[in-house]
Amino acid sequence: MTAAPAAHLLTMEGEAYWAPLSAESNHINRIFASIAFGILWYDFVLTIPLEVERYWKGGRSWASTFYFLNRYTSVISHIPVVVEFFAAMPEATCRRLQLYHQILAALTQCIVGVLLMLRTYALYNRNRKVVYLLSSICALGGAVSVWAIVSVRSLHVRSFQDIVVYAGCDLTLSERQGYYLAAAWSSILVFDFAIFALTLVQALRVGRTWSHSLFRVMLRDGTIYFGILVICYFSNILTYIFAQPVYKGVSTTLTNVISTTLTTRLMLNIRDPELLELPRRWPSEHIEI
């Protein structure tokens, strides 16, 4: 007869412990998410005229197709993520939105990866060995990401309905969940490092010979992209591994938004009319991207 009250007391103690942590985690995540959403949609509005000029007109290619996928998947598909961060809802709905968010992050990185592969493919004059190498790394990273998402989802063990109702979705992560997601982001970092290494090798081969060409702009943009993203990826990995539950993964949404936004900028710069008027001094500059 005392088992039920004892269990009820244990549940109440659990809620009393986790409710403040969940609320704090939500508050921190909402701050970072607000910054991310602001960057995403502000940059979208800011670059619409450039997009119309450089991608809406003319023919279609694989690069332009994935440009639009990257652009509008991110802009439209983050609307449910806003609901995840800012709405109060049943726990089951929270879990579905969190799974959706994890899949969206993986899909976003996959599309960005394809665009980066196409750029590197152009830099290497359509050398298929480059594509095979990067595709292998991408496939391995995708497998790791799927494993991480499945593993994280299987570890949701808390079920305190009051936390969800009054504080919103419980965005805290356990230590094991953090390790799984750190592994997923590490695989993305390895892929980006491979892109950067290949870009750097080609830059060293060229030297200053094509200092005012489209090729040089592609090298410059790729270096800046990697420099910014490596900081974001490392911050994600470190928070997943070492941070307290309330801080694990707080920069994930921001990292995804920065990644897709920078990729959009990379692709817009490639079609800058002023650059297209420059003499084509490198074979890869004649490839339609």
What does this structure look like?
- The longest helix has 54 residues, at 3-56.
- The protein has ten helices and no strands.
- 35% of the residues are buried.
- The chain has helices at residues 3-56, 62-77, 79-86, 91-123, 128-154, 161-167, 175-206, 214-242, 252-270, 273-276.
- Helix 7 packs antiparallel against helix 8.
Question: Which SSEs are present, and which pair or pack?
Answer:
Layout: H1 3-56, H2 62-77, H3 79-86, H4 91-123, H5 128-154, H6 161-167, H7 175-206, H8 214-242, H9 252-270, H10 273-276
Helix pairs in contact: 1-2, 1-9, 2-4, 2-9, 3-4, 4-5, 4-7, 4-9, 5-7, 7-8, 8-9
Global structural class: mainly alpha
Roughly what is the average pLDDT, rounded to an integer?
79
Describe the sheet with the most strands.
none
User: So what's the overall shape?
Assistant: globular
- Our estimate of the beta-strand percent is under 5%
Low-confidence stretches: 1-15, 159-166, 280-287
Instruction: Write down how many β-strands occur, each being a DSSP E stretch of 2 or more residues.
Output: 0
Distance between the termini: 73 Å
Q: Provide the helix percentage.
A: over 70%
Please report the number of helical segments. 10
N-to-C SSE string, H for helix and E for strand: HHHHHHHHHH
User: What's the gyration radius in Å?
Assistant: 22 Å
